[in-house]
Design brief:
This protein is mostly helical and about 280 residues long. It has one domain: Orthogonal Bundle (Ribonucleotide Reductase, subunit A), CATH 1.10.620. It has 10 helices and 2 strands; from the N terminus they run ααααααααααββ.
């Protein structure tokens, strides 16, 4: 599966990215009015798929917690914090469109339970956070595009395709902020590479910032509070192929090669611990 590689030209070191990103995303933006909810064929989805859809909806709600984290950890970068306002709007629209879809089946999540899902994401240096979310958005885009092709219900297929394209565009925005940061401080390339390398070691095919454990006392990840997340994890493992992951790896390495101004054909051989503590070759 090919991954989108938007090209926006070289990033000027001191030029605010928010101005250009806002206009670019606005031109590509879709609305709830574009979704023909009245045309949903309810007979084409089984109970298992609807359970996965509810979990997926609640994972999109986690953008609320990520936004608080971004504004806290990137507080010295007003350009990025302005971009977060657009990212948050679009991510919460993903949550809303999936909830509206579930309403047709009388299966929308109970909003009164949302405070129980609230998760405080641990403070972290912003450079690895930026790279983690760049890779995470690419992986989300990959998931949604795969599910768009596989679902039998046309309206859900359309929704998945729209969300997947959004995620790819968000990844391109994170990439621009990485490029700008390296123009100011080339040493940040090491931080970006290390975080990306960790993201690419993904034996379960589900690695995303929402699945990362918090370093706070609770030790929770965002998905720990979502009932039936294990079912979605198994679905990811079934639906996402080795080829999908390899294509994502090539995309990330191409980006890092461009930022490093030299070709990176593969990750260096090393032993890296994954998020479950297992040691895997990288």
């Amino acid at each position: 599966m090919g991954l989108a590689q938007p090209k926006n030209g070289p990033v000027q070191q001191n030029a605010p990215l928010y101005d250009r990103i806002f206009r670019r995303l606005e031109r590509a933006r879709w609305s709830l009015a574009d979704i023909p909810f009245g045309e949903i064929d309810k007979g084409l989805l089984d109970d298992e798929t609807l359970t996965l859809l509810r979990v997926n909806c609640l994972m999109e709600l986690s953008s609320l917690y990520a936004t608080r984290m971004f504004l806290r950890d990137f507080r010295e970068n007003p350009d990025f914090c302005q971009f977060v306002s657009v990212w948050y709007y679009e991510e919460m629209k993903h949550y809303l469109v999936l909830r509206e879809y579930l309403k047709v089946y009388d299966l929308a999540p109970d909003v009164s339970s949302f405070p129980d899902l609230d998760t405080e994401i641990s403070p972290s240096p912003w450079p690895p956070t930026l790279a983690l979310h760049y890779c995470g958005e690419l992986r989300l885009g990959m998931w949604y595009q795969r599910w768009s092709r596989e679902t039998k219900e046309p309206v859900l297929s359309k929704i998945y395709n729209l969300i997947g394209n959004d995620e790819f565009r968000h990844a391109a925005c994170y990439e621009e902020f990485m490029e700008q940061a390296i123009a100011r401080d080339p040493d940040l390339l090491v931080d970006f590479m290390q975080a990306a390398k960790w993201m690419l070691v993904n034996p379960n095919r589900d690695k995303h910032p929402t699945t990362m454990k918090s370093a706070l006392e609770t030790g929770r990840s965002v998905v720990d509070g979502i009932e039936d997340y294990e079912a979605l994890q198994k679905h990811i493992q079934r639906s996402i192929s080795d080829e999908d992951e390899q294509n994502l790896r090539r995309q990330v390495l191409a980006t890092l090669s461009r930022l490093a101004a030299r070709e990176l054909e593969k990750r260096r051989r090393a032993r890296v611990r994954d998020d479950q503590g297992a040691v895997s070759p990288s």
